[in-house]
Each structure stands twice: as C-alpha cells, then as structure tokens.
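Subject: complex prediction, re-run

Hi both,

The earlier run crashed halfway through, so I resubmitted it with identical inputs.
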Amino acid sequence: MVSINDYHSDYPNHWCPGCGNFGILEAMKAALAALELPPEKILIVSGIGQAAKTPHFLECNYFHSLHGRALPIATGAKIANHHMTVLVNTGDGDCYGEGGNHFMHAIRRNIDVTVLAHNNRVYGLTKGQASPTSMEGMQTKIQPGGVIMGAFNPLAVALSLGAGFVARGFSSDGDQLRDLIQAGIRHRGFALIDIMQPCVSFNQVNTHKWYKDRIAPIEENHDETDRISAVRLSLGTDDRIPTGIYYRRESPSYTDRIDKLKDKPLTDHRYRPELLKALLTDGYP
Amino acid sequence: MTVDISVLIGGEAGQGIQTVGLLMARTCHRAGLYVIVVNDFESRIRGGHSFIQLRISDGPVHAPTQDLHLMVALDERTYRLHQSDLQEGGLALIPKDDGDTMVQHHQCKIVDFAGLAQKAGNKILSNTVAAGTCLALIGAPFDLFENVLKTTFEQVEEKRLAQNVQAAQYGYAAAEEHTFRWSWRWDRTSPKGRLIDGAHAVALGALAGDCRFSAFYPMSPATGIIQRLVDMAAAVPLVVEQAEDELAAVNMVIGAAFAGVRAMTATSGGGFSLMTEGLGLAAITETPIVIVNAQRPGPATGLPTRTAQADLQFVIHASQDEFPRFVFAPGTPFEAFTVTARAFELSDRFQVPAVILVDQFLNDSIFVAEEAFEAPEAARPFTITDGDLDDPTLYRRYALNDSGISPRALPCRGLARVKVCSDEHDEAGHITEDAAIRDAMAGKRHAKYQAMREQIRPPEVIHAGSDIVLISWGSMRGAMIEAVNQLRADGINCGGLHMIDLWPFPDAAMGEILEKAAQFFVVEQNRTAQLGQLIRQQTGYRYADAVLKTNGRPMCAGEITEAIKTKLK
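This time it finished cleanly. Structure:
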C-alpha cells in the first residue's frame, strides 16, 4: 500500500500562502498513491518557474532542469528507460513560452509523459510579467498599456497536433484534478493537463472568484473520443471554462514504436564489444 | 615517396564527381597505395562548383597538396578555376561537348565521357568512364579497377556490373596513345588498413564508448556522424532521435544520461551556441554528456560546407560561470575513434561534459587508417546501485567529498531517490542559497580538475629536441607533420608537436617541451592563433609566429613550409 504520507517531503515550501500550486501538489500525491506508485518509481521533470519547484515538495526522483527544457529532458530520460513513470511539472511560461517548440514536438512524438501545466496566466517567479496565456488587455508593470498579444490556447494547439490525452483541471477542485492526473498517468502516450490556477500575488484579473464564476465541468454528453467536438470545446463559445477530459484516444507512444525497446529499456543492456567486431573493420570497401 | 600525384575531379554538384574520386581511391588503395580524398563542395544540392582532390602516394598522406597533375573538368568552370594549378606536363580531361568552348591548350585531352557511357548502356556511366581513363593514364592495371566495380555492383544487379565494366574498358581505351608524365609501374602490395572518413571514425568511437542514445539537429558538417550512427544502429542497443532544435537535442541527451545511458550529440558551431545552455546544465547537475562540434567557418551561418578551427577558445569557455570539462581535438580517423571512446568514459567517470572538436576537413575527407580500431573489452560502470549504499533511502546525489565526484545513482532503479537541480543545490539536490553550501558545491565541482588532469595525455612529439617546433591541434596534424619533414629535408632543424587533449590543458608537459625549443610556431585554421594564445596563457611561453588559414579550405604542407621559410628569413 502506498499512502499519501509516503510523498511527504521535509524540504520547506517556497510558495505564497493561497497559491494554487498547493492544490495541485495535494492532487498529485493523491493520484500517485491511488495508482500505488511509490516515490522511488516515479521521475518528475520540471523546468523553471514556481510550478517547476513542485518536485522539491514531494518525495520522488526529480530533474529540476532549465526554463523551457523539461520536455526534452523528460523525452531523453523516457527513451533511456521507458519503464519509468514520468511526470512533468511546468508552467504557462515554461511550457508554452520558452518551451513552446518542445511542447509542439513532444506532442508529435507522443512520448509517454504526463504534463501538468500550472497555468496561472502570469509570471510568478519573475514577479508579475505577462505570460503566453495572459488575457489580451491585462495590465502588468511591464505591460502598463495592457497585453497586446492574443492568449495562447494550449488545449486547441495540443488537439490540432494530435495529442491523445487533453484535459483541463482547476487547482481548487482537488478531487477532479486527482482523477485527471490518474487518468493522465494511465494514458499511454503524451497527456496534457492544463491546470487553471489563481496567482494571489501577481494576477489580479483571473482571481479565485473569477475562476469560480466560470469553471464548469464538461457536460456529460461530450464524446471524449470525438476530436472535432474537443477542438470546439477548447476554442470556447462563451464565458465558461470547461474542466475535465476534452479528448482521449490512445495510439502507440514514441517508445512503443521503436522495435529495439520492445525487449527491454536501453538502460538494461550490457556493453557487448562482440557486437562491434564487424563494424570496427568497416570502411569504404 | 616516389609516387605523389594529385587528381582533381570537378564539376557541378550532382554530376557524380565523388563517385569518380571514390572509385579511383578504392582502386589505388587495393594496390597498397596511400590516398586521401578531400571534398570541396558548395552548400547546394545542384549546380555551383564542386570538386574532389585525390592524392595518391606510396607513402602515408594525411593532407591535400597544392600541386595538381591530372584534372577531370566536367564543366568549363572547373578547367578555368584550376588550370593554373596544373603542373608542367599535367593533363586536363575535358568532355567532348565542352571541348569547343574550353580553352584549347596542349594540356587538354578531349574524352567523350557521355558518348562512351551511352555506348556502354547508359549516360550515367560517365563517371565510370572518367575513372577508367584516369586510372589508365596513371598506369593502374585494369583488373584492379574491375574488382572494385565487382564489389560495388555485384550485389546490385548483374546487368549494371556488366555495363560498368564495359564503360571502364571504354575509359581505358580512351587513354591509349597518351603517355601521362607521372604514370608509374604498379607493384601490388596488400592494402594498407582501410579507407575511412572522420565522421565514420567518430561514430565508431561512440559505439566503442558504449553510446546508447544520440539526439541531434541536422547541421553541416556534423550530420555525417549521425548518419553513420544510424547506419550502424541496427546492430547495437542505440536509439538516434532527430530533435526539433539543438536545445532539445542537448537536453534529450542530458535526460538520457541522467536516466543511465551514455549519450551524445553532434553539431557545428551554430548549434553548439544553442547547446551552450545545456552544457551548463550538464555541468551543474553533473550529468555526463559528449558533444561533438564539427567546426566550420562562422560566425552565424558562415560557410556551411567548409572547414575551420576557430571554436577552440569558444568551447573551452562556453557557458556562464566556470566548471570543469574535457576538450579533445583528434587529428586523424584513428584518433577520432580513440578520443571519442575515451570521451565517453572520462565524461562518465568524472560526471562532466566532454567536447570533441572535429571539422569539415576531418569529417568529410577519406583517409587511409592503418591502425586497428579496437573496442574496450568492458565498459566500466561509474554508477552505483542500492547495494552500494548503507541506507538507500538516505541517498544524497551531491554528497561532498575530497574528489568532488559524488557516487551517482540512477533514477527509478531502486530505493535511492535521485534528485538533481539546475539551481545551486545542497547535497540532497534541493535548491539552496546558503553561502557556505554554494562555495562548497562550486568547490566540489572544481575539485575534479585535479584527477581529470591526470587523465590528460601529453602531446605527440615529432623529432624531439628540434630547435624549431611547429605545433598543431586537431586536423592540422597531417599538414604540420608533412611540413616538418619538408623543412627537415631542406636542412632546417625542425620538429613538431600535435595536441589532441586540450582541456584540462597539459601545462606541465607542454612547458617542459617548449622550454627546450628555440622558437615555436602554431599552425591553425583561425585568425587569432587560438592555441598559441592558450599556450601562452597556460605556460607563459610565447609563440614566435603563427601560420594561419581562414578561407575555409584545408591547409597544405606547402603553405606551411613557405610561410615558415619566410618567417625564418
């Protein structure tokens, strides 16, 4: 039995009181315990930002990497040892800004990692600048006239690129988020869970109340295997922010499609110089 | 050397000039001769001007030469550009179609390559006709060439082989009634080693270094290394992934290495610039990675298909702040093989990044490698498992010790939880801003230098104790040694030093040698004598002068000897 307490970390937390990250952290622990995944069996890769500090605050293997680069690190690690359960804690700036290109191509690879994108629509670590998901017109110290770019729509982008698991959660709905994270980890292939969260220090537009007024679970008649419906949902037709699974359909993941990984992970091979004998004498005939 | 001739085959990209050169090189190699094939091409797929230079000798050759004895000019531009290099008595073969437009000259011989090819069955056999004519001119026995064609086409199709042999015969016949001044009597001896390019040797070194994963983004002149890895990947547990950019490539390599496999990427200077961020990540997380930088002239895009050695100071210093790293620069395919295998082991052992500097000339040229390439019998593991720990649940990735090398466990391989962090971190791998821990961690990383230095091999010494010493690094070795021998033949007391292991710099070994030299000159393909500066910085000895070449073309020994003689006057 794995319990939530097994994930307890003694390392003191760095987040502001009231931060949405706390809800995400608790939902993660609950999901991992429910899946019977002990701390030593999981690898969490993160980039840089408040979200990326998450693995310090729960027991696990982790690689707290560079801003934007969590997905390539996770990809390399997963290819080396595809038996690991790999999660990525990242933020809207980390994943959709600095790491935007990696986000697109990790989806195309369908690498089997579960991405938790802590989306508070603002830069927290650097104190309040606009993020890729900041709403148009949002004023910040750096954008005093308001953001003049349209907001990045991660779900629509992921769906258009063929992501096999696309969901949206809310940091204050722990039970739903736990279930989404569990489903995301179970999904074989790339899973994106974009998590709406308030930033109590720097986002005075998308406050907790603002979300409460708009968040609504996806209607029950939504067919999560229908990609077009999912895209329509992701584009939004009114003020509501639907949460839950937008789209889910499994297809072979990147490591499933590499024949030489079928037998065992790359990490499990022995060095065998005899395999090189014929190659080492090779040249132009 | 009694035989030393050079053949240039030039034309537009896409005309198959490399085929001609390779067929000739293989024929010569089979007769026991030494060759080097240097590719000179533009960054385009069709058109432009490309050529290969094939140098044939009965003694070892590792660099191109300025002398030109025989030319196949598949277009008019080739003749125009290279005709002044033809030695007195040299010969240019010109296709019939262009015969009228080219300058009529006693050094020209018109051969109807296309017509003869058509007669043999197909116009694309022109390359075989051309190779045949050249081989006939230099006196190569026909059966040697025929055997090369057999090896090439036997498995493809019987009909193609027959057509090629026919085309070769027509090529030979076209040379009849012409006596080539440098034709010689061919004594067949057994082939010397094998023909191999530098890119292939690097890839073999990676396999001998137990490389299991490689990620890359295509960039000349590094792509050949990855192509070779892919070509061999079926036989070994190796996965190669084309990343979306160089940032992803280096970070995938770091992720794979962290998870427990030896991993590398290959790029050129522009890609290395992007990877610099990852280099620092590998350093602070103490993740072993190997990066090959196949140099080309820059900055920015520069000359994509040309050669340079201008990234030495860059890779030694790349990234913000300071940390230990290895930098190697092999000079021959054999060195490229051994150095690459060594880089994997040393990087793993010391948990530091290793950079290998090659260049377009070494990567793309075909050399005779006489040494046997041998893979190590075993790959020593430098990681630990739960069994090595008293209590794996208390494992600390960055435990402090005198060597600076903390025992490295792998994630998800036992109870030990592995925590790494690009922020400055404590022993457990958690973020810290504690002043004392910061100093301890930076000091721990730096402490590795002491043991790393012990792994650095001294430079290769040619004619020890000479008054005048020429110093090369990387691919300049061949031209430098040839120049030393030419200068000695001219009565100058000259020796050479060739450096492969460049960082940590072998301060003591170099200082000891340079102390005895009356004066030394560096030979490099950059504008500021980067190795010369490094030697001065590390040993205090100042180079007398430098022979530098920055136009993107490989150095010839003749250029060095001329420059040195002028400087000595």
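Strands of chain A lie at 42-46, 61-64, 85-91, 114-119, 165-170, 191-196, 215-217, 241-248.

- K.
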